Every structure is written in structure tokens, then in C-alpha cells.
Amino acid sequence: MQNHQEYLQIQENYINLTPQRQKKEPINLQNGIVYEGQWLGNKKDGFGIQTWLDGAKYEGEWKNNRACGKGTFYHANGDIFEGNWQDDKAQGYGTFTRVNGSKYSGYWSNDMQNGYGVEQWQDGSKYQGYYKDSKKNGQGTYIWADGSSYDGSWVENQLDGYGIYKWNDGRRYEGFWKNNYIHGKGKYTWQDGRYYEGDYFEDKKQGFGIYRWADGKIYEGEWFDGKQHGKGKYIYTFGEIKNGIFQNGKMVQCDDENNNLRNTNCNVSEKNNNNSNYGYIN
């Protein structure tokens, strides 16, 4: 294992001393800071190691008294950043490893995650995609520890725009999101074959939509607050169609044989239907 002096010597092979650049012994700076490495005049320049009173340490390249180039910063709490620096800030590609086991490898700008990167958490969750000012922003894929996943658009750490969410139990939603809500047009499919395709408002079916049961029966019409509400119709597998008015998930008026709305006996013909209760949908 290399000792401290051997490490310094190896780094100096990459950053050559010049008549102007000089290596100096450790120097005590203000507030308990100690710097050991290369100088250009009276400024830190080249390779050097600086330690702080709280135990933090930076070892890497310097220019004009600032961390600039490749270097590693050891935070006092145990977190580590290794990568590129400019004017004392992370800039370019780098890896930040937290003491709790989470890790980010990707691009930085102005000390914040900016651009493409991959972040992993100690529970096994993982995100790969784009960041802006250390928030997920743009296209990205997040995989949760339980196997659920989201692949799509993000805005400031929230699901926003078009994306596909897959639950670990087989459910799937493909469509639009807003502020982490299913919002706009999309298609939600259940593991037993049911699906809803239409409008959503903050996670609830609202507007126009089509709901298809696993056995092929269909409701097509208006929705409000997650329930059939307004004009709609049932389309049965044997061909019969029942138009009507719905309130809170139940048909309250339906067409008679003359296409006139009536308020009673809206069930489909008993001989053609084994189960006419297709009202409120969860």
C-alpha cells in the first residue's frame, strides 16, 4: 500500500513541476485548514491535498487557488465525491457516494446534478435519466425496490408528461401525468384483462372513457370522480346496446324500444344476460 508521500509523488508525475510551480511542505492556512502540494506563486496550483478542521479533505488538481480538474472530496460525514471540478464546484462527470449506501454517477454543473446520470439507493431502487439542478427532469426510468417501474417524462422530481408505469402485480398505465397524478388521456390495464382508456383527472376517471371488462362487456361514455356519470352506454358481448344516463356509477335512465329515455327497468334482457350489474367501477 502506498504511503502518503508516495501518493503525492505519483500525482506529481502527471502534473510536472515547472520553474514557476513549486512543491511546498504542509502549510497551515486560516481556520485550521492545512494544504500540502504544489503552488504557483502564492496560489495553490497543480496537485495538492487540503484538509479541514472538521475532517473533510480534498485531494486533486488545483488552479488559481481553487479545486479545478480531477479530484476527490471526502466530506466530514463520510460522503465522497470523485470527479471533475471547476472553481471549487463539481463540474462535468463525477460520482457521489453517500455513507448510507446510495450513489449517483453522472454529470454535474455548478455543484448540482445536471444532465444524464444513474442514481441508486440502498433499498435497491434505481433511476437512470436526466436531471436539472439535482432534480429528475426530462426523460428517465425509475425502478422501485419492489419491481414496479416508471419510464417517461419528469418535471422537478415528479411524474409529469407522457409515461408508462408498470406495477409489480401486473397492472399497467400508459399515458399522461401531472404532478405525480394520472392526468389527461391514457390507458390503464389490469392483470385480469380489464382496461380503461380515456380521460383522467388527478388519478380518477373523468371526462370521456371506455371501460372493458375481462369477459368483453364494455361501458362507453362520460365519467366524473372515478364513476360513470352523464351520458353513456353498455355494449354487451351478445350484441345488445343499452344507452342511458348515469349518476354516481349507476344507470338511472335508459332507452326503451322507441329510443325514449325511461326511469325504470334498465336491465338488459334476462335471457341474454347472466349478470346485469355492471355499475360502479373501482
UniProtKB/TrEMBL annotation:
Which SUPFAM superfamilies did the record assign? Histone H3 K4-specific methyltransferase SET7/9 N-terminal domain
Cellular component, GO, one term: cytosol
Check the record and name the InterPro entries matching this protein: MORN
Supply the alphabetized keyword list. Repeat
Asked whether the UniProt record includes Repeat among its keywords, one would answer yes
Which Gene3D superfamilies would you find in this protein's record? Answer: Histone H3 K4-specific methyltransferase SET7/9 N-terminal domain (2.20.110.10)
Name the chain's protein: MORN repeat protein
